[in-house]
Amino acid sequence: MTDPSRHKIRVDVSTNYVDDQSKPDESHYVFSYTITIRNEGDVPARLMTRHWVFTDANGKVKEVRGEGVVGEQPYLLPGQGFRYSSGAVLETPVGAMQGSYQMVADDGAHFDAPIAPVRLAMPGLLH
Protein backbone atom coordinates (compact mmCIF):
# COMPACT_ATOMS: atom_id res chain seq x y z
CA MET A 1 0.00 0.00 0.00
CA THR A 2 1.31 3.40 -0.90
CA ASP A 3 1.48 6.34 1.47
CA PRO A 4 -0.83 9.05 0.05
CA SER A 5 1.45 11.88 1.20
CA ARG A 6 4.50 10.30 -0.44
CA HIS A 7 2.77 9.32 -3.70
CA LYS A 8 0.42 12.06 -4.85
CA ILE A 9 -0.11 13.01 -8.47
CA ARG A 10 -2.51 15.82 -9.30
CA VAL A 11 -4.19 15.75 -12.71
CA ASP A 12 -5.95 18.83 -14.10
CA VAL A 13 -7.90 18.69 -17.36
CA SER A 14 -9.16 21.49 -19.58
CA THR A 15 -11.28 20.71 -22.65
CA ASN A 16 -12.28 22.54 -25.80
CA TYR A 17 -14.71 21.84 -28.63
CA VAL A 18 -12.95 21.91 -32.03
CA ASP A 19 -15.55 23.46 -34.31
CA ASP A 20 -13.51 23.49 -37.54
CA GLN A 21 -12.82 19.72 -37.33
CA SER A 22 -16.32 18.68 -36.23
CA LYS A 23 -19.09 17.60 -38.60
CA PRO A 24 -22.36 17.58 -36.62
CA ASP A 25 -24.35 16.47 -39.69
CA GLU A 26 -22.16 13.32 -39.71
CA SER A 27 -22.27 12.75 -35.90
CA HIS A 28 -18.58 13.66 -35.71
CA TYR A 29 -17.73 15.90 -32.73
CA VAL A 30 -14.07 16.67 -32.05
CA PHE A 31 -12.77 17.76 -28.65
CA SER A 32 -9.25 18.72 -27.62
CA TYR A 33 -7.98 18.45 -24.08
CA THR A 34 -4.94 19.65 -22.22
CA ILE A 35 -3.69 17.66 -19.26
CA THR A 36 -1.42 18.97 -16.53
CA ILE A 37 0.14 16.29 -14.34
CA ARG A 38 1.92 17.47 -11.19
CA ASN A 39 3.84 15.44 -8.63
CA GLU A 40 2.60 16.76 -5.26
CA GLY A 41 4.15 13.85 -3.37
CA ASP A 42 7.54 13.41 -1.76
CA VAL A 43 8.96 10.78 -4.14
CA PRO A 44 9.89 11.09 -7.83
CA ALA A 45 7.63 9.01 -10.07
CA ARG A 46 7.31 8.00 -13.71
CA LEU A 47 4.04 7.76 -15.65
CA MET A 48 4.14 4.29 -17.19
CA THR A 49 0.71 3.72 -18.76
CA ARG A 50 -2.62 5.42 -19.26
CA HIS A 51 -6.23 4.26 -19.17
CA TRP A 52 -8.95 6.55 -20.52
CA VAL A 53 -12.69 5.93 -20.75
CA PHE A 54 -14.70 8.14 -23.13
CA THR A 55 -18.51 7.95 -22.99
CA ASP A 56 -20.87 9.72 -25.36
CA ALA A 57 -24.48 10.79 -24.68
CA ASN A 58 -25.75 7.52 -26.19
CA GLY A 59 -23.77 5.52 -23.62
CA LYS A 60 -21.20 4.35 -26.18
CA VAL A 61 -17.92 3.71 -24.38
CA LYS A 62 -14.45 3.81 -25.88
CA GLU A 63 -11.50 2.73 -23.74
CA VAL A 64 -7.94 3.71 -24.53
CA ARG A 65 -4.96 2.02 -22.90
CA GLY A 66 -1.32 2.44 -23.75
CA GLU A 67 2.19 3.25 -22.70
CA GLY A 68 2.90 6.77 -21.53
CA VAL A 69 1.30 9.88 -23.00
CA VAL A 70 2.04 11.49 -26.38
CA GLY A 71 4.93 9.09 -26.88
CA GLU A 72 6.57 9.90 -23.55
CA GLN A 73 6.76 8.41 -20.08
CA PRO A 74 7.34 11.60 -18.09
CA TYR A 75 9.51 11.40 -14.98
CA LEU A 76 8.32 13.87 -12.36
CA LEU A 77 10.38 15.07 -9.45
CA PRO A 78 8.43 16.34 -6.41
CA GLY A 79 6.86 19.66 -7.39
CA GLN A 80 7.47 19.09 -11.09
CA GLY A 81 4.74 19.05 -13.72
CA PHE A 82 4.17 17.84 -17.27
CA ARG A 83 1.60 19.20 -19.72
CA TYR A 84 0.36 17.75 -22.98
CA SER A 85 -2.58 18.06 -25.35
CA SER A 86 -4.54 15.45 -27.22
CA GLY A 87 -8.01 14.91 -28.62
CA ALA A 88 -11.08 12.74 -28.76
CA VAL A 89 -13.91 12.20 -31.23
CA LEU A 90 -17.47 11.47 -30.08
CA GLU A 91 -20.65 10.69 -32.03
CA THR A 92 -22.68 13.08 -29.82
CA PRO A 93 -22.21 16.77 -28.90
CA VAL A 94 -21.96 15.89 -25.20
CA GLY A 95 -19.95 13.25 -23.42
CA ALA A 96 -17.44 12.61 -20.66
CA MET A 97 -13.92 11.35 -20.14
CA GLN A 98 -12.19 9.89 -17.10
CA GLY A 99 -9.39 7.50 -16.35
CA SER A 100 -6.09 7.01 -14.58
CA TYR A 101 -2.34 7.00 -15.02
CA GLN A 102 -0.35 4.08 -13.71
CA MET A 103 2.74 5.38 -11.93
CA VAL A 104 5.95 3.88 -10.55
CA ALA A 105 7.76 5.79 -7.82
CA ASP A 106 11.51 5.72 -7.18
CA ASP A 107 10.86 3.83 -3.93
CA GLY A 108 9.35 0.97 -5.97
CA ALA A 109 5.70 1.76 -5.22
CA HIS A 110 3.18 1.23 -8.02
CA PHE A 111 0.10 3.43 -7.77
CA ASP A 112 -2.69 4.94 -9.85
CA ALA A 113 -3.23 8.65 -10.36
CA PRO A 114 -6.99 8.96 -10.90
CA ILE A 115 -8.45 11.37 -13.43
CA ALA A 116 -11.88 12.59 -12.30
CA PRO A 117 -14.73 12.66 -14.83
CA VAL A 118 -14.64 15.68 -17.13
CA ARG A 119 -17.56 16.84 -19.29
CA LEU A 120 -17.06 17.25 -23.02
CA ALA A 121 -19.68 19.51 -24.59
CA MET A 122 -20.27 21.57 -27.67
CA PRO A 123 -20.66 25.24 -26.60
CA GLY A 124 -24.21 26.43 -26.01
CA LEU A 125 -25.59 23.10 -24.80
CA LEU A 126 -27.28 23.19 -21.42
CA HIS A 127 -27.68 19.44 -20.82
Automatic annotation (TrEMBL):
Supply the Pfam families for this chain: DUF525
Q: Which Gene3D superfamilies match?
A: ApaG domain (2.60.40.1470)
- Give start and end of each ApaG domain: 3-127
Q: Which InterPro entries match?
A: ApaG_domain, ApaG_sf, Uncharacterised_ApaG
Q: Which PROSITE patterns match?
A: APAG
> A GO BP term, please?
error-free translesion synthesis
Report the NCBIfam families cross-referenced here. Answer: PRK05461.1
Q: Which HAMAP family match?
A: ApaG (MF_00791)
Name the record gives this protein: Protein ApaG
Gene assigned in the entry? apaG
